[in-house]
Every structure is written in structure tokens, then in C-alpha cells.
Amino acid sequence: MARRSAGRRAVSPTGRVPRRAGAFPGAGKGTLNVDVAVVGAGVAGLSCGRALQEAGRAVVLLDAARGVGGRCATRRVEGQPVDHGVVFLHGSDPAFLAALDPDGAPGVLRGWPERIHGSGAPCQPGAFLAGEERIALRQGISAFPKRLAAGLNVRLGSRVVSLSPGECSVTLRMEGNGELTARTAALALAAEQARDLIATLPSGLPEVEAAKFLLEAAGTHPCLTVIAGYSPDTEGPDWDIDYPEDSRILQLISHDSAKRDQPAWLVLVYQARPRWSRDRLSTPPEAWTAEVLEEGARLIGPWAARPLWHQSHRWRYARVDLGRELAGPMLLPLPGGGLLGLAGELFQPGGGVEAAWSSGRRLAQRILAETEP
């Protein structure tokens, strides 16, 4: 495709902007030119990138983390997987459920958790409604985003710090002075992270200002998490998950080792309530870890305060505020003709992983409808 003359925007007979990867006007030396740059390799970003790539678009995904999946995260302790973010998956969309269990994949535990203890409010109350299917993965929750990422161009350790509109393009600048140019930038991030990136765009753009306002009103709840390992000889709880009804500290306790084949450890994952987590987000983990384990002992038994090992994790952006979700993803025009997309569980009613997956696919459909390869 020939380079377009300065100040002009080539438009197809349908009114959509044609674009080929590697043919962006004004692309600087050493930049990577793609159709779509997706910022965020969580489930929303991965589902968006996969749908776009399957439609023939050149896509790159950028994420500051060391792995894909966001809160669909699994650690391995001496070879034993532990889910320390999302503890199980659930949904009712047949397409989403098929993506979770393609062709009867091994290690899929349908109906987990089965044994529910406590009457406290779940993080996702919809998970237990009629028609919802609950699923855990013996190999760990992270197997799902890793499957979504297979074959995609994912660049980890790439923190995007600013966006600049150009002629039919958006330039994304990364920490360390790297940059790339894309026809469309799609942000699949927590509301706070997306808001900070949008703030680097020129001010006074009506659509962008409206998006900033919506993101300001949304927000994400934090979650302080403690993984605790006990001797396999410990007489552990007879439930899969506990939702304490009388705890100001804990939202849930997951009996993670109940999902594993021949676990080496009895493992519990303690997840704290949003307000309690927010109050301690900047304090040393040693302090709040001790409080969490003491609360576990009060709820389960004295043995829970004495794990053989433990690990702590701060989820700064853990859960959307249910009830404030938006109706769908956004696709905004930028000066010069580039596009800015927004997706994530915030942009789909219901929240959770299914919402993130659906919003990513819906954003991909909007991008495909607005642009040509």
C-alpha cells in the first residue's frame, strides 16, 4: 500500500479506513507496525487478540507482567499448582464454556466447588445461580489464559506509559523508550490503569473525556491474599470453599488442594475483603499476613495459624464494583483517524472472567466492523 500524502485520510468505498500491517504513515525507525496493539494480556486482552488474529489482523499484545492471565494466576510450590487469584471459573455462555473445555480437555473439574461452607457473600454471587456452570482446572486456572495465548504475539515485560494519536494511527510508548505504531490501540486493563493511559492523550477530545469520566466513577477493589501450606497429614476442612458470614477480614477461603491429584501439601488460599485490603494495601505484608492467619485459626481451628510455609500477594486491581459495569466495550475515534478501544470485565454486565472474555471478543468485532485489513 502506498504511503498516503500528509494531511489526507484514505477511505474505502464503504467509508471504513483500510490498513495493512507495516504500512503506517509516520512510523518511526525501529517501530513495530501492526493493525491492533492490545495493552493487557489478561483474559479480555487475550480473547480480543485471538479473535482479531483469527480474522487475519496483525496483532501484538503488550503486558508489564511476567506471565499472561492477570488474576487467572497459578503458582507452583514444589510442583503443586495453587490458584491464588481466581479460584474457579463459571459461566453460562456456551461459547465461553467451550473455550474453557475444548474437546473434553483433561483435568477439567465440572461443578467445583461442590462443598460450600458459610453463608457470606461470594465475590461473584452469580456463580451459584441456576444455569451457571462452575469449573476448576486440576493443572491450575492459568491453563486457560495460556491456551488463549497460544500462537499470539505476546510481549511480556512491556509497560506502556503513553499514547499519541497520529495519521490513521496511535503510537504507544513503552518504559525504556521503546515504541510501536498501530491502527488501533485496545486497552484491556483495570479501570485505574486505563484511565492513567488515557490521561496521556491530548485533552479536550469529547469521546475521550467521556471515557475518563466513566473510568473515574468505576474503580477496582483490591484483595490481599495469603497462600498457606500445611502437612498433608493435617485433618483439613471438609469443604471446597468457605464464605465466612461473620468475618470483617476474610471474603473467602479456598481449599485449593482439594482440586489436585495426590497433593504434596494441604493448601488453603485466604482472600481478604475489599475494605480491609484497601486499608492495608501499603503496609508490610508481614503485618497483614499474620492477621489473616489468625483469622483463619478463629474460623477453622488453631492449626490454621501454623502453616509449614506461606506466601503473600497483593492484588491491587482484583475485582470490579458489581453494579457499576458498563453495557459493552468502547471504541473511540482519535484525532487523525486512529482508534482507541476499551475492554475488560468492567465493560460487560456481571463481571468476572466470562465478562472479561466476552468483552474482549465484542471489542474485536467492533474493530473488525470499523476497519479493513
Structure in a nutshell:
The protein is of the alpha/beta class and 373 residues long. It has 8 helices and 21 strands.
Distance between the termini: 11 Å
Helix content: 10-25%
Gyration radius, rounded: 22 Å
Query: Would you tell me the overall average pLDDT?
Result: 89
Number of helices: 8
Structural class: alpha/beta
Would you kindly provide a written description of the structure presented here, covering whatever features stand out?
- The protein is an alpha/beta fold.
- The protein is 24% helix and 29% strand.
- The chain contains eight helices and 21 strands.
- Strand 15 and strand 16 form a beta hairpin.
- Helix 4 runs antiparallel to helix 5.
- The longest helix is centred in the C-terminal third of the chain and has 19 residues, at 352-370.
- The radius of gyration is 22 Å and the shape is globular.
- The model is unreliable at 1-30 (pLDDT under 50).
Key features of this structure:
8 helices, eight-stranded mixed sheet, globular, 373 residues, alpha/beta
Please give the structural blueprint:
Layout: E1 17-18, E2 32-39, H1 43-54, E3 59-63, E4 74-77, E5 80-83, E6 89-91, H2 94-100, E7 108-110, E8 116-117, E9 133-137, H3 143-149, E10 154-156, E11 160-166, E12 169-174, E13 179-187, H4 191-198, H5 206-218, E14 220-230, E15 241-242, E16 250-255, E17 266-272, H6 274-279, H7 285-300, E18 309-320, E19 330-333, E20 339-342, H8 352-370, E21 371-372
Parallel strand pairs: 1-21, 2-3, 2-13, 3-10, 8-15, 13-20
Antiparallel strand pairs: 4-5, 6-9, 7-9, 11-12, 12-13, 14-17, 14-18, 15-16, 16-17, 19-20
